């Protein structure tokens, strides 16, 4: 081997080692040691080396997590040691009975027996087999004796080590654990599915189970799956610990994630206390659990206790109340949210779900109703997971009675009577009574007074809440009728504070057309769009008179945004409030319409992290002046991302979508060239 080849082999080995170390700290320790961008750079370099030198590819390379060809079917795998199920306890008396049976069989004082407890994850049980420290087999539980070989899919999970950590791993190791999906990952997956017309899953468990049993490993790789180890089934005798809790600690050292909530307790009351505390935390967790698992901690005692036909005597699951139940939809009403969005809410036959009586459940929107094929009178499955409004996840069509009624979107807002507008291609239906609708009042006023709108200093959220609840302010125009004497009557508002607020309101009468348009709170109209409208039309009168065709002539305004703007100004309630604001002295200078170059027209940019040479507001202003739209979220439609120090999930999302990412120095150089008319306005191809 030449010196160059030898150096390349060493570089590949170093990259594999450092990438796996980074994976361990990120997915097991939850403590990243390198930035995501650096991880991606290293992975790309390793891919380049392996593409040029196939002989350097190893079975445990991080590049092997993705890319296996689709399988025609899963092989049958016979478990060396059966994957048994657990007996269940549903109340504290049954937990005490379990602890008493254990103590009686061991002929020991029940208060001297330690149990290792952890949450019972609601996912799919799998087995992993390692030989000489390398993952060689992954299988489902199946019927407990025989499962399906899904090794290629499990290799894609970054929380599963492909090679065990440490210099001297066990020669043989079989680890069992749960594949699951977090709530946040599940929501992202379903959101992407709705955007692309893909399959929407009913719950995280179904999503996880369905993902690991896909014949194409690329599908599993694209899903936010996690793995948590809960048992050592086989290991070299010399490596066997005497306690289950110690064995779990050993698994972490080998590179596995184990439950951070794992705890050793003593006796029946210790078990009950753990189950109670876990139950109280259940709704705050970012993953589903359906109970707690309780195991005798000492392996010698486990062996002495043995098994019954299908379950160990030394372990039991305490089951929480089910988070899904069956009930019927009696009716559907539509709630109006703070932004005017109408949400259909099913009125249910009351049912106990996870220990709480549920009488209402969200149906989200009309598209979700169509997907579910839900009708009034249907029998449905209701789910309550996390601190959220319960939701209908499935209609049991087989139980549909003959007399059911279709669910229809109302033509008028159920709160204010304004027209309900749903633009073609939009999921949400919006009440067009923006400034007038009582359901939107508080948020409309907070937006109107915010720093980037009319910038009324001293008019905070709590004060607006008070003014609305006292019915002193019903529309933005009422703010300009407030007087010092009346404001001084409010709790914790002294005369000086009231005077300062009235003066701030008075100063806000003189504004700009861009700020005023933005302050109106028209759906989908942010600062950049408000500025584009002001620059294009020059006066509010021309804007209000524009039809949808004229609105789509404005840079970066498509049919959906145009329909929202047109619907807003077509609503007489909104026009009346605008007239009232002008009578109260709110004014601005007309905008001179200048035909200036817009080289970034049609492009969407995202700013994230801390910029050092300029503020993000300044960067945003310079981009919008060139015709770009600056968004707060990264999507497939994003053209480029500017990332400063401290960039987080937005930068991670940009890398996932393979978008162009600028650091601040690159961005400034490129921006100055564009502003001087010297640069190429096309985003550079990386």
From TrEMBL:
Concerning SMART domains, the annotation shows:
BRCT, HhH1, LIGANc
Residues at the catalytic site: 120 (n6-amp-lysine intermediate)
Task: Name the source's superkingdom.
Answer: Bacteria
- Kindly list the biological process annotations in GO that this record carries: DNA repair; DNA replication
Q: Which InterPro entries match?
A: BRCT_dom, BRCT_dom_sf, DisA/LigA_HHH, DNA_ligase, DNA_ligase_CS, DNAligase_adenylation, DNAligase_N, Hlx-hairpin-Hlx_DNA-bd_motif
Positions in coiled-coil regions:
none
* Residues annotated for Zn(2+) binding in this entry: 413, 416, 437
The GO molecular function terms of this record are: DNA binding; DNA ligase (NAD+) activity; metal ion binding
Q: Write down the Gene3D superfamilies for this protein, in alphabetical order.
A: 5' to 3' exonuclease, C-terminal subdomain (1.10.150.20), 6.20.10.30, BRCT domain (3.40.50.10190), DNA ligase/mRNA capping enzyme (3.30.470.30), Helix hairpin bin (1.10.287.610), Nucleic acid-binding proteins (2.40.50.140)
Question: What cofactor requirement does the entry state?
Answer: Mg(2+); Mn(2+)
Residues annotated to bind NAD(+): 36-40, 85-86, 118, 141, 178, 295, 319
Name one matching Pfam family.
HHH_5
Which Enzyme Commission number(s) are listed? 6.5.1.2
UniProt protein name: DNA ligase
């Amino acid at each position: 081997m030449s010196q160059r080849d030898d150096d390349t082999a060493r570089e590949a080995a170093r990259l594999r080692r450092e990438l796996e170390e980074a994976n361990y700290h990120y997915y097991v320790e939850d403590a990243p040691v390198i930035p995501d961008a650096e991880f991606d750079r290293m992975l790309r370099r390793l891919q380049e080396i392996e593409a040029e030198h196939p002989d350097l590819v190893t079975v445990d390379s991080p590049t092997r997590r993705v890319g296996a060809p689709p399988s025609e079917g899963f092989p049958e795998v016979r478990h060396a040691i059966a994957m048994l199920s657990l007996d269940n306890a549903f109340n504290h008396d049954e937990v005490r009975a379990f602890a008493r049976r254990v103590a009686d069989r061991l002929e020991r004082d029940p208060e001297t027996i330690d149990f290792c407890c952890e949450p019972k994850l609601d996912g799919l049980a799998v087995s992993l087999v390692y030989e000489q420290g390398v993952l060689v087999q992954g299988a489902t539980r199946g019927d407990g004796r025989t499962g399906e070989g899904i090794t290629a899919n499990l290799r894609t999970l970054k929380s599963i080590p492909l090679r065990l950590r440490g210099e001297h791993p066990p020669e043989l190791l079989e680890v069992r654990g749960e594949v699951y999906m977090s709530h946040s990952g599940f929501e992202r997956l379903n959101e992407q599915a709705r955007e692309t017309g893909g399959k929407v899953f009913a719950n995280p468990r179904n999503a996880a189970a369905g993902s690991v049993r896909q014949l194409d490993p690329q599908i599993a790789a694209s899903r936010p799956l996690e793995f948590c180890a809960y048992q050592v089934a086989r290991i070299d005798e010399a490596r066997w610990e005497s306690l289950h809790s110690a064995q779990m600690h050993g698994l972490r050292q080998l590179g596995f994630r184990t439950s951070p909530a794992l705890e050793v307790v003593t006796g029946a009351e210790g078990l009950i206390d753990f189950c109670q505390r876990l139950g109280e935390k259940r709704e705050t967790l970012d993953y589903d659990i359906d109970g707690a698992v309780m195991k005798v901690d000492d392996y010698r005692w486990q062996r002495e206790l043995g098994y019954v036909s299908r379950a160990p005597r030394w372990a039991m699951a305490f089951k929480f109340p089910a988070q899904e139940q069956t009930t019927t939809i009696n009716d559907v009403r539509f709630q109006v949210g703070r932004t005017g969005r109408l949400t259909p809410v099913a009125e249910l036959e009351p049912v106990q779900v996870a220990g709480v009586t549920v009488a209402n459940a969200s149906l989200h929107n009309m598209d979700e109703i169509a997907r579910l094929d839900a009708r009034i009178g249907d029998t449905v499955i209701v789910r309550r997971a996390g601190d959220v409004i319960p939701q209908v996840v499935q209609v049991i069509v087989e139980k549909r009675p003959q007399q059911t009624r279709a669910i229809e979107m109302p033509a008028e807002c159920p709160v204010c009577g304004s027209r309900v507008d749903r633009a073609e291609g939009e999921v949400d239906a919006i009440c067009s009574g923006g400034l007038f609708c009582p359901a939107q009042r508080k948020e409309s006023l907070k937006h109107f007074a915010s720093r980037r709108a009319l910038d009324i200093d001293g008019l905070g959220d709590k004060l607006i809440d008070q003014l609305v609840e006292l019915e002193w302010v019903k529309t933005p125009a009422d703010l300009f009728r407030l007087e010092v004497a009346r404001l001084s009557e409010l709790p914790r508002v002294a005369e000086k504070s009231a005077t300062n607020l009235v003066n701030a309101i008075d100063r806000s009468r003189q504004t700009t057309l861009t700020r005023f348009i933005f302050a109106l709170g028209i759906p989908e109209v942010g600062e950049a769009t408000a500025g584009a409208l002001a620059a294009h039309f020059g006066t509010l009168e021309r804007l209000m008179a524009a039809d949808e065709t004229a609105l789509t002539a404005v840079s970066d305004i498509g049919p959906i945004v145009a329909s929202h703007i047109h619907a807003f100004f077509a609503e007489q309630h909104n026009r009346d409030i605008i007239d009232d604001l002008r009578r109260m002295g709110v004014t601005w200078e007309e905008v001179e319409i200048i035909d200036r170059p817009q080289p970034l027209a049609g492009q969407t940019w995202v700013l994230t992290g801390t910029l050092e040479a300029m503020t993000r507001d300044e960067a945003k202003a310079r981009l919008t002046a060139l015709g770009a739209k600056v968004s707060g979220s990264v999507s497939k439609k994003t053209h480029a991302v500017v990332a400063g120090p401290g960039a987080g999930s937005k930068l991670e999302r940009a890398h996932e979508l393979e978008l162009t990412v600028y650091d601040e120095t690159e961005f400034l150089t490129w921006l100055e060239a564009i502003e001087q008319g010297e640069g190429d306005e096309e985003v550079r191809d990386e």
